[in-house]
Write a structure and sequence with these properties.
By secondary structure, this protein is an alpha+beta fold. Helices cover about 35% and strands about 25% of the residues. The strands form three sheets. The chain has a six-stranded antiparallel β-sheet with strand order 3-2-1-6-5-4, sandwiched between helices. It has a six-stranded mixed β-sheet with strand order 7-14-13-17-16-15, sandwiched between helices.
Length: about 425
Amino acid sequence: MEEEGPGATVHLLCLAASSGVPLFCRSSRGGAPTRQQLPFSVIGSLNGVHMFGQNLEVQLSSARTEDTTVVWRSFHDSITLIVLSSEEDTSELRLERLLQMVFGAMVLFVGLEELTDIRNVERLKKELRASYHLIDSFLGESELIGDLTQCVDCVIPPEGSFLQEALSGFAEATGTAFVSLVVSGRVVAATESWWRLGTPESVLLPWLVGSLPLQAARDYPVYLPHGSPTVPHRLLTLTLLPGLELCLLCGPRPSLSQLDSQLLERWWQPLLDPLRACLPLGPRALPDGFQLHTDILGLLLLHLELKRCLFTVEPLGDKEPSAEQRRRLLRNFYTLVTTTQFPPESGTPEKAEDVVHPAQLPRACYLVLGPGSGWQLVALQLGMRLLLLLLSPQSPTHGLRSLATHTLHALTPIL
């Protein structure tokens, strides 16, 4: 796969599994959408070799060439997704989870029945166009990480208890159990029912809201890939402040007109200052008063049981490396430790015992990048929490575990 211009190229192919007919092809270069398309002969070859293996009862899941990683995945024996990435040292785990998110996005917009019982290919192609903007955001360099971790991106507001109380009261007033506040695709606060949403919709819904252009109100029909893949729900969004949206997942009621200005003013006008304080939390995730060690350039904290995460690369201004590099380093480090040190099963003790004796499970690991950079990465897992830190070269290696432990203890009360 030849590259044209700077940055890695990613191609995503979606085909009908039975016929091999392409449903769509999306591409990005350097994190930005591109019109570059793969030749039809290449698409046919990629699908053909996968089907050839299936006919021989061999499951072809991935392959590597000199400059490209390819991953195949079939869903319900109906849809085949193929992703090709020229990014150096990209992991198969990352591409596999990308395909899971893409299929989830397809179900979100058209429902599972349309994808498992394809009666009219051309109609399905048209219906899937609605999912392109969301799928393209997965191919780009997002500030979110839920697509990889399968945990909901969250932020910690400075006055979370007041927001939570207002959210619960508003939900009761509207008769809607599933309500959340979302800033830049990250959940600020949510009702208990919203937190109980399964994967992948718990990640997809706030990501969708964050990827849409600014609009005062929306009424979107959506399917829930896990909870309701065949019956649509309504996703209502109301902009409280630019970038901060109130989201409701509901049935036929309430209508958008029922959520009038008086109802919004009653619950949210008194909290205008706490709401404004949420706006800068998008990239930072943590409130201004929360102190981090000056050596920390970025962090990722995951609560493996609650399926929530905090991700920030902007705790301390504009030190090197750039925010984009920091995100890339932490994402790559997450895939490394997930595949080699802290497998997903390690968060569940009864499953971990089936794989390896608990005494053999590591608690921490670190990586020093070089030559020339010296940036350090450390991962620490305690119970259901996994913390990844990106640290400056000045941070002493012998103190990495102590710094990570102190940071994790400081973050534990808030996530």
